[in-house]
């Protein structure tokens, strides 16, 4: 019999911190941050990292314009550092019960200082769950009038590996705190079952076993922690991001959760190409949950 699982403690945040760099894309995380702040009863703060003191006044003015306030507003923070991620992380650590919410393209380095690879660096430094708004969240379909987090549905992505399941206690806790229904989704490459009994399924992506049985078993395990939980399999020959894109098109979602992996026990956490691709194609903000270092 499958043993039941337990969700983690409900998240509590007093501040939501948005890194800005003067670009439209970075400021595009503010609607998502505003929705999160409203749900948690938190206050929005913004942070910009300058490379020298000479930039402080200009950068503070740009941040004030994005936040719609005065440059002297105490919610505006400017850090002087040549390492953007380090500056953001330092400010987040100084704020009370802080959640970082940022925008990103989810792939590579592009113009701007808090998108692409720098966004990945921020996620790695934080070591705590981070909410990321990809390009389709920052620039939503003009015909879609759904506000960020406007759908009470949280999707947690799993791929058959123990690492992908390490974030489920956090995903379940977020769903409970936000009053959202939790769905477990795995994307599997369609392939015939192995001819030899007990042999693994040789998939390029997805569980190396019967995918329907995998999510059924996982759903049974997590049902007590998330009443109304729905396990779901997407069969897609291309990959996890393509499968999730199709799933989200048919099933509107308020938030999607992915677990970020570690390279090894001594190295920094890596965002992972699969997680980054999901962020890039998702029409919902993504909750990136770092896998505990001592369990990977």
Task: Please provide a brief summary of the model.
With 296 residues, the protein is of the alpha/beta class.
Description of the structure:
This protein is an alpha/beta fold and 296 residues long. The protein has helices at 24-27, 30-40, 56-67, 84-94, 117-126, 135-138, 162-165, 168-178, 211-222, 240-250, 273-281; strands at 15-20, 43-50, 76-80, 98-103, 130-133, 153-157, 181-188, 230-235, 255-262, 269-270, 286-290. Helix 5 (117-126) links the parallel strand 4 (98-103) and strand 5. Helix 4 runs parallel beside helix 5. It starts with 14 loop residues before the first strand and ends in a 6-residue tail after the last strand. Residues 106-115 and 263-271 have low confidence and may be disordered.
Key terms for this structure?
single chain, 296 residues, alpha/beta, 11-stranded mixed β-sheet, elongated
What's the structural blueprint in terms of helices and strands?
Layout: E1 15-20, H1 24-27, H2 30-40, E2 43-50, H3 56-67, E3 76-80, H4 84-94, E4 98-103, H5 117-126, E5 130-133, H6 135-138, E6 153-157, H7 162-165, H8 168-178, E7 181-188, H9 211-222, E8 230-235, H10 240-250, E9 255-262, E10 269-270, H11 273-281, E11 286-290
Parallel strand pairs: 1-2, 1-4, 2-3, 4-5, 6-7, 6-9, 7-8, 9-11
Antiparallel strand pairs: 5-11, 9-10
Helix pairs in contact: 4-5, 10-11
